[in-house]
Amino acid sequence: MKEWWVQVGLLGVPLLAVYLHIPPPQLSPSLRSWRASGTFFTYKDRNIFYRDSSGAVGSSDVVILLHGFPTSSYDWSKIWEGLTQRFHRVIALDFLGFGFSDKPRPHRYSIFEQANVVEGLTRHLGLQHHRINLLAHDYGDTVAQELLH
């Protein structure tokens, strides 16, 4: 009789193979809508998802929303409309490795790189000379601190 661990291993390998090839679940209608209302820009050959909405007339304020871990820009979906009533422009992105943005592997992710991605987005949108408000939570707080530094 073979060792028990060999039998478990022989059974486990096909199960793992099946698991890894199971397609991801379908997106909910609200997530499909969120993705459809956004677009992508390229940062160092990586596709970064962002959403950009014009809002309050008469305001010149821009706000960039920085999401938490391990989520995405969709964190802001329930307050998006309220923010567009307050700010002239509301922008949210999915950090590299999150949400609809590229997830390169292997890759050494860093807060500094995420801050550079946000700066790249501001350049892409022509906002480098505008006053920008940051609204962040969780992981985004750390990225915001790096941007402020």
Automatic annotation (TrEMBL):
Organism: Pachyramphus minor
Signal peptide per UniProt: 1-20
Keyword Transcription regulation: no
Gene: Mest
Residues covered by the AB hydrolase-1 domain: 62-140
Entry's family note: Belongs to the AB hydrolase superfamily.
InterPro entries linked to this entry: AB_hydrolase_1 (IPR000073), AB_hydrolase_fold (IPR029058), AB_hydrolase_sf (IPR050266), Epox_hydrolase-like (IPR000639)
Listed PANTHER family: HYDROLASE, PUTATIVE (AFU_ORTHOLOGUE AFUA_2G14860)-RELATED, MONOACYLGLYCEROL LIPASE
Gene Ontology terms: biological process: acylglycerol catabolic process
Gene Ontology molecular function terms on file: monoacylglycerol lipase activity
Gene Ontology CC entries for this record: membrane
Pfam families: Abhydrolase_1
Name listed for the protein in its UniProt record: MEST protein
Keywords attached to this entry: Signal
Signal among keywords: yes
Lineage of the species this protein comes from: Eukaryota, Metazoa, Chordata, Craniata, Vertebrata
Superkingdom of source: Eukaryota
